[in-house]
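To whoever picks this up:

The nightly regression suite flagged Kinetochore protein Spc24 as changed. Nothing in the input moved, so I suspect the structure step. Input below, exactly as stored in the fixture:
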Amino acid sequence: MLLEEDPATLIHHTIQNFNIAPDKLAVSRVNESLSTLNQARDLRIKASETALRKLARQLSTVQTQHAEQLAAHRSTDHANAIAQLDTQKFRIAKAASDLEMDTERLSSQLADLNARLTELELQGIEGGDEGGAAGGDAIEDEVLLRLKVYRSLGIDVEREGNDGEFSRAVVRNDRKGDVHVVNLDKKLSRFFYANYFWQTL
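Regenerated output under the current build:
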């Protein structure tokens, strides 16, 4: 009878009748797939964590830079800078206005001095026609008047000797605190020296 057979034989025949080999292979493949998926998931998690840490560092750096920029460019500092620039602008405008007024004043003085110089030259020519001692006095007076005009401008002319020709001029600018010594050369025209002296003054 069936129950009289060996249990091991019965179990063996039962297993053969169920044919579980394909199921075992399927379970094995499923386990391998699960293992592969777990490994892939772990790799993706690690990559995501690495990217997250990198982004966190970048965020921290950007936040620090942002805080530094805000500290360096505070609204009060900007307002102070604008106020300083406005003050400087007004000072420059005032200085330009003062320079323009000085230029007009000096131009007026130059015109007056040129007119005076022309008048003195004409007087010298009229005085030179008389001849003799009177002519010499007129020339000497003309020289003295010219020297006086030059000194009023801040120009001292020096002779080589007591009766020598004028060889050097000292130009002083009290407003700038400058002193220029100019050697007079006959090769250069009076017009050149006049322009140079005026630019120096």
